[in-house]
Amino acid sequence: MNKVSGYRQCTRCVMDTTASGIEFDEKGVCNFCRSFEKLAEKTIWRPKEVRIKELNDAVTKIKKLGKNDKYDCLIGLSGGVDSSYICYWAKQVGLRPLVVHFDNGWNSELAIKNIENIISKTGFDYYAYVINWEDFKDLQLAYIKASVIDIEVPTDQLIYASLHKIARKYKIKSIINGNNISSEGILPETWYFPDKLDIVNLTEIHKRFGTRKLKNFPKLGLTQQFINARLYSMYSVPPLNLMDYDKNEAKKILTEEFGWRDYGGKHYESIFTRFYQGYILPKKFNVDKRKAHLSSLVASHTITREEAIEELKKPTYDPALQKEDYEYALKKFGISKEEFEKYMHEKPVEHKFYGSQWDKKHFRKYYIFKKLLGPALNFISKFKK
Questions:
Q1: Angle at 58 (CA atoms; ends 56, 64), nearest 5 degrees
Q2: Average pLDDT over residues 299-324
Q3: Neighbours of 46 (CB within 10 A)
Q4: Dihedral of the CA atoms 82, 84, 88, 93 (nearest 10)?
Q5: How far apart, in whole angstroms, are the C-alpha atoms of residue 384 and residue 158?
Q6: DSSP 344
Q7: Which residues of 186-219 are buried (b: 16+ CB within 10 A; e: fewer)?
Q8: Half-sphere exposure at residue 58, Cβ-oriented, CA atoms within 13 angstroms
Q9: What angle do CA 214, 218, 223 make, to 5 degrees?
């Protein structure tokens, strides 16, 4: 791989030199494509019969673990393609999930309608986890003021934390997620915060820039993850990586089965995510996340490179809707245009500047906890079984 100067685009996908750390081989193929290949060969590109067996075994395990309970698994539903298709698949294989939606106050009307249709058609039980808006707003604003790139961390971290909290409440061991390599396998680490569940980083950013005490927020740091795995025997299942998952085919099925409607962008079921990915990232950080999303689809042979290039010629999303989202977001946050633009023009700051759960002083606490209480949790877990 060779480092480059000046603008250049991969000859296989649509990643380019706007992504720091990109390198190209003698054929002009970027390091992100090569990394995708290595990952895919170990996962989604393995022989179909091997993956299907693992998928069937996973379904059998889920049903066995939950056979005496009301629910045998939990599914987080945003209303987007991946999580919606998971619900369709769960119905097909006869699972009994509790479907959970994390409501952070930014749902689009279309997202709400899609969720309603899915729940109505599947007949699954539904749990809406509504976070306190004033507290969550304070946390999101803290991230904007911190000038870090991944303003979606509060949503992502609290989604996982709320799912684990509800799973404990209903004694559910299997959490099914829609993570998949075919549409998410390419994403430069400089374009997001890889350690989404870093509770120390979140806490420190809010402590520095927030104004409210966060009450009753679900937490999922290293200690809680360890407790959930050892004491409650909870684990996560990503079925989309075990099947021949084609996002375009999934959309067709969802449209036919549920009357599902497309949002026009990955994760655009959330108004804030749409505004963040389509406006804030390009304007403040010079990041067009569509390049990574489209490159993943090209690498997984879901679309062609030519189709991806044509898509990138379009605006990140409709300019009129961008203007509408801009005004809506500022009003919802309760900040002026001048204040928001001030944050938009501040120099980006790396997440780890604010601390990490992997820092020596924080990790040492977890290490001591794990060493002292780990054996006891293992014993309790075996006794419960």
A1: 105
A2: 96
A3: 14
A4: 60
A5: 28
A6: H
A7: bbbebbbbebbbbbbbbbbbbeebbeeebeebbb
A8: 22
A9: 115
Residue 14 contacts residue 309 (beta carbons within 8 Å): yes
pTM recorded for the entire structure: 0.91
Q: What is the percent of the chain with per-residue pLDDT over 70, rounded to a whole number? A: 94
pLDDT tens digits for 55-67?
999 999 999 999 9
- Predicted local distance difference test score (pLDDT) of residue 106: 95
Tokens for 49, please give them: 């019969």
Burial of 92 (0-12, 13-18, 19+ CB in 10 A): exposed
**How would DSSP label each residue in 140-157?**
HHHHHHHT-S-TTHHHHH
Q: Sheet of 125-130: strands edge to edge?
A: 125-130, 97-103, 73-76, 174-176, 235-237
Show Cβ contacts of residue 262 under 8 Å, excluding neighbours closer than 6 positions. 81, 251, 255
Q: Has residue 80 got a pLDDT over 80?
A: yes
pLDDT for position 269: 80
- Terminal CA-to-CA distance of the chain, rounded, Å? 51
Q: How far apart are CA 350 and CA 255, in angstroms?
A: 40
Q: Any idea what the Cα angle at residue 307 is, between residues 304 and 312, rounded to 5°? A: 130
| DSSP-assigned letters across all residues of 210-229 | --S---S-----HHHHHHHH
By CB neighbour count within 10 A (0-12 exposed, 13-18 middle, 19+ buried), where does 91 fall? middle
232 or 317, higher pLDDT = 317
In CATH terms, the superfamily for domain 47-286+318-353 is HUPs (3.40.50.620)
Number of H helices, E strands in the chain: 17, 5
Name residue 129's amino acid. Answer: Y
Domain-wise residue ranges, the chain: 47-286+318-353
User: 318-349 in b/e burial notation, b at 16+ Cβ within 10 A?
Assistant: eeebbeebeeebeeebebeeeebeeeeeeeee
Mean pLDDT of the chain: 92
DSSP letters, 244-261, are T--HHHHHHHHHHHH---
State the residue for tokens 């998928």.
55
